Amino acid sequence: MCGIVGYIGKEPSKILINKLKKLEYRGYDSAGIAVGSVNNIRIFKAVGEIKNLEKTVVPAKDAAFGIGHTRWATHGKPDETNAHPHLSSDRKWIVVHNGIIENYAVLKEKLSGKGYAFYSETDTEVIAKLLEYYSGKTCGDLNIIAETLAALKGSFALGIINAEKDGIYFAKNKSPLFIARNGENVMLASDIICFKGFAEEYYALPDGVFGFADKNGIKFFDSIGETDIKPCILDLDEYDDLNKYKHFMLKEIYETKSAVKNILEYYSGINIDKVFSGCDFGKIKRIKFVGCGTAYHACLLGAIAVEEKTGIECGAFVASEFRYSDPKISEDTLVVLISQSGETADTLAALEQAKVKGAYTVAIVNVEYSTLKKGAHAYLPIKAGVEIAVASTKAFSAQLVVLEIFAEMLAEKFGIKHANFEGVRKLYENFDYGNVNSYKLLADALRYNDRLFMIGRGRDYCIAQEASLKIKETSYINSDTYYAGELKHGFLALIDEQTYVIVFATQKNVLQKTLCNAEEARARGAKIILFTCFDLDQSETENFYYVIKIKEIDGGLQNVLSIVPWQIIAYYTSVSKGINPDKPRNLAKSVTVE
Fold first, then answer.
1. Which of 12, 324, 328, 562 sits 20 to 30 Å CA-CA off 230?
2. Does 570 have pLDDT greater than 80?
3. Do 320 and 412 fall within a single domain?
4. Active centre residues (catalytic)
């Protein structure tokens, strides 16, 4: 969840600070860098934003390399002591770490028994002390690092400096790490966005690989010995230009239509047989969708779409629960894993679990160089472009569109109908952001509340779940979601005259049922905000507090036109409260730890 940067070249402190700013979207609560030259390393740390760290840094003219880190606290509170980099007792080894060392407590007890003192509450400090410990047990830095890595259990991406060496060591296991070179300059990073403008190709480190970089080049090693890794071409969209927008969240919401166009263009020329190469569809009896947070809400809607179009039994599962349950998975199961980043730890664990049990796996992911994409049998990109804001917007909409396409693909593979993606074309041609002024007015009203309720049925309930999450993430308002038909089973006890109930009603077959449920809440004093795509009689809406009318479109892609307004409402509610919607407190964009 944190960010790592390493750099070999001139002005490393300046480069590290600039690149750490590129990684702010990943979420963090403190930051630090270690920069210098052989036997002259200086460390700077600060709590809070990168700008706080920037104020403490004193550039050194002779500095030739450095490592930097943004920390999202997992072990120990966010303060300067727990901030990275971390040091060995002899100050020879300096470490930055992304991930979690699961056996750190055991290792810490062992090292404490050998006389090592610990100054922080972190699991990362154990790595620095282990490096020092093995320095007395074996010869050669690479052997020391190999012994240290062998002792660790868990996930890690590491940037390591030996204060006596002119370069940077690195290691990777289950957490993303990449490296690139430009002449004598080398850069290490948690995300390839750091390489934009620096290099035209990069190396994606596989699990179990470690190595050393200096001005002379990069060497890679695995458990057998030195190994080769083929470089990848750097291909990035523009991601850091806000243009006319004040925040990335709003910019990305308004990139949704372009994302739909990208999806349509990409999938119109796709070879379905090639995408699902190796899958025996004659065996498939069930389909399971797995994701976390926003991606889980996409799973809910994907399961509905696929079951409707194929008749195959489908279910949606939260990845963090899926991995610890005993899901019924075998060779007759198709497991679909959804993630914006492709690095979500629980989703990756679910992927491995599914593969071990013999399932055919499909990744639906935005980041095309991600671990999830590489690990699944098949891959469906959502083509949303880089998403910086922590609260996912265009990526969620793109997931919904790709899931509709996926449902059509499966219908074709099961011999039900030919996939033509006409619904996506209609969505693009009729895409509508709605009446933004009415959204702003509603946002202004919602800002004064500390709780909201949202209700709906079927797909509307799923969209209400995501709308509620957006409000919570960006505005810190406690928003709860209920099935509309469940009001009498406890929910009505929470209703009074100060209560806002947002009613999602975009499905014709349950419209009147949903309106009746809304009336139940209104009769108890609730202020009803109706969200619908239908033209209703005045008699049906005259007692409601507020009505939002959106464009109607056939099929499951109504979901996209339904969620975009709530992304905009969440944005303006956040801004009206003086909150930065791009960086919600305590949250990270890429959840790479359990």
1. 12
2. yes
3. yes
4. 2, 589
